[in-house]
Amino acid sequence: KHEILPPGEEMAERPRWQERQQLARLCDLVADSLLPHLESEPLATRRPQLTREEERRILVALSRVNKAIRGWDDDEVDDGEQGCASEQIVSCSEEAHSCCLPPDHHFDDGFSCLANIISIVVGLLHLCSDYIKHSAGNILMAISNSLMKFEAVWIQFVELVWAAIHTVSTCAHNHSTINATKDSVGCSSAAESISHDTTTKSTSITSFIAVLKLRCVNTSRQIMTCLFRVLHIILKLLKLNDSEMKDDFICLSIHHIQKLHWDPGYQLNAGKVVSIVTDDRHSLSKDAAQFGIVSGSLLQLFCSLFEQSDTEDTDRRDIFVKLADAIPRLATFLQEQQDIPKSLSQYSKHKILMLMIRLKPHIQQNCSHIVCLLKLLRGHFQSPLHEPMFQHSTKLENCLEGSPFLLSGVSLGELQDKSTRHLQRQAMYLFLSCSIVLACSGDDSRLKCSCKRDQCCHKGQGCTDNCNYFGLSEISVWFQRCCLDKILDSKSSTDIVLCFLQLYMEEDDMLFIILLQLLDAPLISLAIDKMETKWTSELIGAKLFSIVFDPVHIFHQWLSLLHYDHLVLVDYLISKDVGVHCAQYLLRCLRLVSGCWDAFVDDSVYEAQIQKFNCKRQRTLKNINSFTGSSMGGTKLGSSHDKENKSKKQLFLSAKVCLLSLKRTLEDLHKKDLFPYNPKPLLKSLSRFEELCAQY
């Protein structure tokens, strides 16, 4: 019997009974179809292993449930039909519907339906069948889609999925570190922490955890992998549909990720856990792989929360900065994952580097966060960061990459693994980006710094000087270790630039962000000149880096690697992925060329700078112990890579033809309205370049 409400209140009441009706339908469908498969045996004798026939029956039931839920979304009932149905199904407290929950575990306001649905579906995830896990995850995604029109209920659904993750996480931790009898205490204590600042009461979370434990016998971390996958796909769908609830999901996920266990003895150290496991069916490699998959799934979700397009979103910056404290935990995360397979280790490193790259724009206003990133790179990414770049020059030009003929021409030992090169590109970009930010931090009044209490890595008096010196010293040590010995061995500076560019030419998106970053290389030399004289000898590597990676010289070498083909530049400019960055780089380079015309026309200016610095360095290195064994005799730095084949003016003439051809092509495309955006700023810069060429 329903009370007659005024028109305004009736409109507000209708969505509420619609929510309860939808929850009741889902609850009945899931409970009737799936619950019998969980309660077919007593709890004490329930086992995760299935016979082939049992697996087939469960998969058929899951398929029917998934199809039914998706059918509701395709065939929505109208308001009149809903009004009739509301007298039959109102809420879980009415006689028309009753949740199949254990005694003393009923909730108010329809929450029991959500608790019942999720506990049943998650309970199926503990079964030893990858097919069942996949199908159950698809049902959770279908339920999410069906509840998305009811925002409050959908948020509770997401919170309960995270509550299930915390429950499995905490219980698995207790099984690994404590006696199994203490496991219930740890599971119930999780409710208080995960319900803080959420819309769900702590008592409701506690009851949900109790129901989940009754239905989920084996708290394997594979359940976490499945749930992370579900959340990741939900986020992808929210972004695809540009849903307004995307921000709610991101905030909620960040809140729960912060509360996940990061204890190195818990989910990060596979070796310790394996030594405690008494089940002989799980080998070391299988258990280590499980840890790698769980961590990889979490990192995949983590990175999806920080899209590249979010780097300029200042509204979310405060939310993202909250995760800066998780960066030191990532160091432990890497350190403890020593037993997982190499492929999973490479994937985890890739995702962590991607996460730090996406997080950096939001945290770089505080120097202490940038210092933390550099320490993380120095401590845990030594291998990709200091991998020799010169292996890239040994590549056959007349053979497609990946061709079997390449393997016959070059031995496997000489070929660098693609994933290793990708990690190297990521690590080097992040390292140079962070170091340059610190090195030039003295000129940016917006930067905050709270790292002066960390005296172990700074030598300056003030906090700003500390950060300046730390950034410069990191560049100096890195460049001396990676490249300076090559120069001392008569490798020209142009060789270094070419090898560096060749490393990044394999990935267009990484290429332009590193090219844009290297435009700030001269600022390093200026920062060193402002420092006290007693420190300059320690920063010789940073000084030489600033000279070797001269932006005008890099621009020349980049065009030469493109074989001065202006159509390649056009392809870059119209690319959806790198077009904006390419346009930014060309605009800044053309502006730089206008101010450094002599250096662009005559590349010997670059060579003279190298030789001039080399003379000073020879005098300085006499008093530096680390270089006493180096021989400088016969070294001629700065000789061009193609000196024997091309004159210095030929470099300029080739670049001139390329850029003027680019100008004519852009003008033609713009007149025909075929260029995807307004190229007038770029055409203006190219016109100025043409004027300078005419005067030369």
TrEMBL record:
Taxonomically, which superkingdom?
Eukaryota
> What sequence ranges are listed for the domain Protein Lines C-terminal?
656-691
- What InterPro entries does the database record attribute to this sequence? Lines_C (IPR029415), Protein_Lines (IPR024875)
Under which name does UniProt file this protein?
Protein Lines C-terminal domain-containing protein
Please name the taxonomic classification of the source.
Eukaryota, Viridiplantae, Streptophyta, Embryophyta, Tracheophyta
